[in-house]
Amino acid sequence: MIQAGQGRVTALHYGTYDYSAACGITAAHQSLAHPAADYAKSVMQVAAAGTGVWLSDGGSNILPTGTPEDVRSAWSLHAGLVRRSLERGFYQGWDLHPNQLPIRYLATYAFYREAFAPAAARLKAYLGQTGGNVMDEPATAQALASVLASGLRCGALEESEVVTAAGADAGTIVALATRRVGQEQ
Length: 185
Description:
The chain is mostly helical. It has seven helices and two strands. Helix content is 55%, strand content 3%.
């Protein structure tokens, strides 16, 4: 479908409840974390790999409204789902309620803050500026640069700290993160 779109397909999003319902999954079990959802999103990732097409995960229909306990419970669920999506390579997502936005921001910032130091150290080693006990290949270096570039874009990371820790300027990091498959380093 991406090829048939002849450049017009720029993003794919996973529709949690439409897909789950179409698969016959009852409403009580429809979730971003359902195995059918994981399968569908894996297929999306394989189809879009190396194409530059953005992926977006679905949302949680458990809204942070009601009693304080209800709100905390919904926020906890949402934070876990956002984190799960980020860990699985879905860096975009959508929300159904404005009260979900603060948790998306917090979960996203926490994800990039936690990823920062290890990614920067490995990228610095890859670029030959330090030793290390991991030998990364170009595709992994691209993923390391991508997490740093994404952390910069969303505001979770400061340019000065990234440049210092990774040993490369922001332009180099962004270029490495966005190079197309098959391009020279």
